[in-house]
Amino acid sequence: MNLNLNRDPGEEVRAADPEPETAAATEPSAVEAAPDDALTAPREPEQEPQERGALGRDGELRRHSELHRRSRIIRSDLAHILCALSTLIAMIPLVLILFYVIYQGAGALNLDFITQLPKPVGEPGGGMGNAIVGSLMLMGIAAVIGLPVGVLAGTFLAEFRSPRLSWFVRLLADILSGVPSIIVGVFVYTLLVLTFKQFSALAGGLALGILMLPTVARTTEEMLRMVPDSLREASLALGIPRWRTIISVIIKTAGGGIMTGVMLAIARIAGETAPLLFTALNSRTWPTGIDKPVASLPVQIYQYAISPFDAWHQQAWAGSLVLVLMVLILSVGSKLYFGRKMQRAR
Amino acid sequence: MALLIYELVQQALPAIRAFGAGFLISTNWDPVNNIYGALPFIFGTVVSSLLALLMAVPLSLGIAIYLSQFAPKWLRSPLGFVVELLAAIPSVVYGLWGIFVLAPFLGRTVEPFLSGHLGSIPFFAGPVYGVGLFAASVVLAIMIIPTISAISRESMLNVSRDQKEAAQALGATPWETVKMAVLPLSRPGIIGAVILGLGRALGETMAVTMLIGNSPKISASIFAPAYSIASVIASEFQEVTAGVHMAALIEMALILLVITLMLNLLARLLIQKTGGRALKSRGRS
Amino acid sequence: MAGCITTKHLSASFGDIHAIEDVSVEIMANKVTAIIGPSGCGKSTFLRCLNRMHELVPGARVTGEVSWDGRNIYAPEMDATLVRRGIGMVFQKPNPFPLMSIEDNVSAGLRLAGGRMRKAKVAEIVERSLRLSALWDEVKNKLHKPGGSLSGGQQQRLCIARALAVEPDIILMDEPCSALDPASTQKIEDTMEKLKKDYTIVIVTHNMQQAARVSDMTGFMLSTEMGEPGRMIEFGLTNKIFTMPDRKETENYITGRFG
Q1: CB distance A90–B200 less than 8 Å?
Q2: Which of A27, A315, B56, C113 is disulfide-compatible with B141, CB 3.0–4.6 A?
Q3: Other CB atoms closer than 10 Å to residue A11's CB: what's the count?
Q4: Residue from the list A14, A40, A42 with its beta carbon closest to the beta carbon of C115
Q5: What is the distance between the alpha carbons of residues C245 and C230, in angstroms, rounded to a whole number?
């Protein structure tokens, strides 16, 4: 069906080129000169040039195609340029965002910003110290919840190969990764916040933990699959039971890779805002415990951004700078490490 | 997963009982009088996501083709990495940038231009605010480009070299090789990528909340403010007082969940199809 | 007479691997030329240099000269796509476009070359090409079925038909039968016999019996050591190569003493 696309430009060329008319006119008679089975039966060499001319071997088709060929090459180059251009266009927003975040954020960023509590409107200074600590705390809780479950699920996928079950679990993990984060937030709200009548860091951490599950599970699985079977068999052959083999040999070998997966997952949840809005809520004080609401960078940025105050907008930019730095360091770092690891394994 | 759905259904029951199927088609959203209809939100969600797809798909395919076929080898992975960085930026930062940089820019330049030249078409008519459906779609498009391009690229790389050589040996130009050998075979993967991108766009919350204008109206103009399911949950959930209000919000969460789940399931199955086909032999003979 | 290829001091490498070195041969028109030699001797690379397919491998380099009817195909003004159109190729593993119909597979190259052709004309070329590759009788009633639905041997003959449809002067075959069963191999050898009246054929094969059966000329390539580039040890009439080769290495290989 793609070939049909080729046709209309072909017609353009044809319109510009009087040649095919004559070619078409001479074709039928030439074709008749070469009946089908003449090809299978022995043939005199003299017949050849005529036959070739009919199908344009040295004749019309080739001359005709000269013009067409040039247009094909131009079209190919054009497609090449367009594709390169789209890549370039996609980079513009990235550059712009990073530029603005650095440009606007760096002005408002100082030591106070990192260490102070937010001040009420009108008072100068103040910072997001509590939000930074809160974010770290939420990430910690999320890791404590998401990591063991994710690693176990990944191990299950890689090591216990019941095709149908692991296909199902894998699909489930993939689908879970597509569930909008705000829905996970609503879910945790109904599960914890409604039940205990209390917004809390724990609820926020749980929501983030659920969100990091699929990433952790899939990277764990992939890393474990990279451990060569010979290592598995060597351990099993020593009479070491299967579960010990998995724990002592395989997870240890793949440990570095799994860690990078975990870092990547944490980077992904560090910027999550939606699920925190009604689980961890927000707070203007330092965190007091995991059963209390807690501030976080993304939520704080959001609330400052939609506020009408310029000073708060400044703070939002500064907060974004800190957040982007945090996320980029985590994800770029782990990806570089991961990339090296993959290469070594190959 | 099952627990998730069960919980949401449980909590949404009051709204389901109160409004029934009318919930889906009513355009009236009035928390003061406790009347709730989801249509404006469904409209905003679907339209903003589709507009985003419209912008993101051609670009993403260009990127995927460039990175998998045309770009010089040494450039491929750094470029791919940079495009993926777009995915690493938190959505709240996109929102912040959108409010203060993109929306004013669009409101000053692109939107007046479009509405000036194409104003006779209702989509482009009406006053321009900067913030609105269009701005939200642009940011959504930026946010889903990494998803769509990365997965399409992957499925294009899965097309075996034999296939490309078959086209090349017939004298195909590089672009014809792509059309003839690469695109047909990676089509399921590309469709899957687009659907996944759509799923992301539908569920994206923060950037949309900050840019869509948050007004539960259905207007023909793409510059007008609108609302999306995820945004209304994000902005009204905390302030809920009435039980039915909350149930209505949760019912909307349920609607969104069902839509994204189905899209994801479809996309994953399609992607598995490209990956699983026995065309992976990339080795040289 | 169209369709002869001459190489002069042809060397090729990809990356750090030096694949062939200083190959100078003259391939005659309307003959079947077989290239034999142990695996890793650079036969396939040599073949791929003849229609500029080699340069598609990342890091590939070619030096020396390849002339097609007196024109150097590596000259700057030569267009690689035109070269590949005039010098077709059939690969080791059958590679029809699996989703395209049989008919579209055969006419794929034709439509690329553009020029609008009437449907009847295309159908006629499709039929002719499929008859030439001895596939017509098996597929004439299912031309709209996808190319991927055929058996391996049929797929390979479909690939031959696809290469024939654009009317090349020369057809390069890279171990076309190595993935096929004996019956399919037989059919393809018969096809080659028919084709050589109109086309020049160069076939790479690791099967010496096949080379002896189908070819008029034979070249023997060898890389003396692992990592050494392959060279053309001997090139001449098939009869002579297989009965009284000039070189000791050729004799050893032919008589099965190594490789």
Answers
A1: no
A2: B56
A3: 12
A4: A14
A5: 19
Whether B145 is covered by a domain: the verdict is yes
User: How far is the C-alpha of A75 from the C-alpha of A336, rounded, in Å?
Assistant: 37
Structure tokens at C198: 């109109």
When divided into structural domains, chain B yields a total of 1
Domain of residue A306 covers 111-345
Q: Write the burial class of residue C183 (CB in 10 Å: 0-12 exposed, 13-18 middle, 19+ buried).
A: exposed
- Using only C-alpha atoms, chain B has a radius of gyration, in whole angstroms, of 22
For residue C20, give the H/E element and its range. strand C17-23
Three-class DSSP category at C33:
strand
The pLDDT assigned to C116 comes to: 65
Cβ-Cβ contacts under 8 Å, A13 against chain C: 114-115
Q: pLDDT tens across A81-131, in order?
A: 999 999 999 999 999 999 999 999 888 788 878 888 887 776 777 778 888
Q: Domain holding B129: CATH number?
A: 1.10.3720.10
> CB of C147 within 8 A of CB of A53?
no
ipTM: 0.84
Which residues of chain B make contact with A72, given a CB cutoff of 8 A? 173, 176
Q: Which of A7, A55, A71 sits opposite C167 (nearest CB)?
A: A55
Decide if A293 is inside a domain.
yes
Q: Say if the Cβ atoms of A6 and C113 lie within 8 Å.
A: no
Judge if A123 and A72 occupy the same domain. no
| CB contact at 8 A, B151 and B189 | yes
